[in-house]
UniProtKB/TrEMBL annotation:
It comes from Saccharopolyspora ipomoeae. It holds the Pfam family Aldo_ket_red. InterPro entries: Aldo-Keto_reductase (IPR050791), NAD(P)_OxRdtase_dom_sf (IPR036812), NADP_OxRdtase_dom (IPR023210). This is Aldo/keto reductase. Residues 1-20 are annotated as: Disordered. Residues 23-308 form the NADP-dependent oxidoreductase domain.
C-alpha cells in the first residue's frame, strides 16, 4: 500500500476546508527542537505534498518568520489550490527570541496577515487563527477583524488555538469557526471534559497537535532545543513518562506498527472531527506518519490503551509554568 492510498480526508468542522490526515506541522523545520537544514526541510514539505498531503500548519512566529519563508520557498513551483495553509499569529518575540506577550488587536490582525501573505508568497490563507487569547483584547474584536479579512478574500476560514469553552462560544457567536487547534494525545486529554464537547456541539473541528508529546512517544530520546525547558522532560518526569509509553509497545507490535503510529491512530480514532497534526524533520518520517492510517483500533483496543495509560498519569505540565498561565484552555 502506498502512502498516497493510505491518505484520508477529513473536514475541519462543519464549515471548514477538507484536508488530508494527518496534517503536517512545520514548526520543527525552523529549529524549535534543534538545528535544521533548509534544503532538507523543503524536501520534507515536498515529500508530504508528493504523497498527496494538503494541510501545512505554521505560525508567523515560528523561527521569527523563517518558517513561513521556508514554506513559501517549498510552494514556489506548486499549485496553490492543492495546499491548505493554516497560520497562527499574535505571539510577540524579542530580538533574542524571548516571548514578550500577545497582540490580537484588530490593527495587529491586519498587520500580521500582510506579512504572512508576503512571506508565504500567496494571496490568501485557508485558515487564520490567533495563537493564544490576548488577555487585553476581547475575542469578539479579534474574530471580527479576521471576519473582515474573510469578507475581503484574504482569509478563507477562521480558527482558534488553545482557548477554553467559554471563549469558543463567544468566538463562534461572531463568525463561523472551522477548528480549534489544541494539544491532544494519549498523554494529554484535558480537552475531553469541556472543550471537546463544546466544539462538537458547535460543529467545530479539532486539529490536535502534540500528538507524540514532543517526542516522548516514539522519539529518539534526545532532549534538544526547547525540549529542555519542558517539565515533562525534567526532574525524573521523563523517566516516568517514558515508562508509561513503554506499556503500549505490545499493542503496537500486535498492530505491526510503531509506537508513534499507534499514538497517531489513537488520536484519529477519537472521531472524524479530530485531525492529528504531526511534525516531521526528515523526508522518511512522512511515509511513517501517513502509514498510521493503516492502524485500525476498535473499541477493545481503545479501552486497553486507556487502561495502560490512564488519564492524568503523565508527570509534568505540558509547558513551563509561565506559558501554562497564558493558556485560556487551562483556566
Amino acid at each position: 500500500m502506498t502512502a498516497r492510498t493510505q491518505l484520508r480526508t477529513r473536514r475541519l468542522g462543519s464549515t471548514g476546508p477538507t484536508v488530508t490526515s494527518p496534517g503536517l506541522g512545520c514548526m520543527g523545520l525552523s529549529g524549535a527542537y534543534g538545528r535544521t537544514d533548509d534544503a532538507e526541510s523543503v524536501r520534507v514539505i515536498h515529500s508530504y505534498l508528493d504523497a498527496g498531503g494538503t494541510l501545512l500548519d505554521t505560525g508567523d512566529f515560528y523561527g521569527h518568520g523563517h518558517n513561513e519563508m521556508l514554506i513559501g520557498r517549498a510552494l514556489a513551483d506548486r499549485d496553490r489550490d492543492e495546499v491548505v495553509l493554516s497560520v497562527k499569529f499574535g505571539a510577540l518575540r524579542g530580538p533574542d527570541g524571548t516571548p514578550v506577550g500577545y497582540d490580537a488587536r484588530p490593527e495587529a490582525v491586519q498587520n500580521f496577515l500582510t506579512y504572512s501573505l508576503n512571506r508565504l508568497g500567496v494571496d490568501h490563507l485557508d485558515v487564520y487563527r490567533p495563537a493564544r487569547l490576548d488577555p487585553d483584547v476581547p475575542i469578539e474584536d479579534t474574530i471580527g477583524a479576521i471576519a473582515e479579512m474573510v469578507d475581503k478574500g484574504h482569509v478563507r476560514h477562521i480558527g482558534l488555538s488553545e482557548v477554553g469553552a467559554e471563549t469558543i462560544r463567544r468566538a463562534a457567536a461572531v463568525a463561523p469557526i472551522s477548528d480549534l487547534q489544541i494539544e491532544y494525545s494519549l498523554l494529554t486529554r484535558g480537552i475531553e471534559d469541556e472543550i471537546l464537547p463544546t466544539c462538537r456541539e458547535l460543529g467545530i473541528g479539532i486539529t490536535a497537535y502534540g500528538v507524540l508529546s514532543r517526542g516522548l512517544i516514539g522519539g529518539s530520546g534526545a532532549v534538544d532545543g526547547g525540549l529542555r525547558a519542558m517539565p515533562r522532560f525534567q526532574d525524573g518526569n521523563r523517566e516516568h513518562n517514558e515508562a508509561l509509553v513503554a506499556r503500549v509497545r505490545e499493542i503496537a507490535a500486535e498492530k505491526d506498527a510503531t509506537v508513534a503510529q499507534l499514538a497517531i491512530a489513537w488520536v484519529a480514532a477519537q472521531g472524524e472531527d479530530v485531525l492529528p497534526v504531526i511534525g516531521a524533520r526528515r523526508p522518511g518520517q512522512i511515509d511513517s506518519m501517513i502509514a498510521s492510517n493503516a492502524v485500525r483500533l476498535d473499541a477493545d483496543d481503545l479501552a486497553r490503551l486507556g487502561e495502560l495509560i490512564p488519564r492524568d498519569a503523565v508527570r509534568g505540565d505540558r509547558y513551563p509554568s509561565a506559558h501554562m498561565a497564558e493558556l485560556d484552555s487551562e483556566r
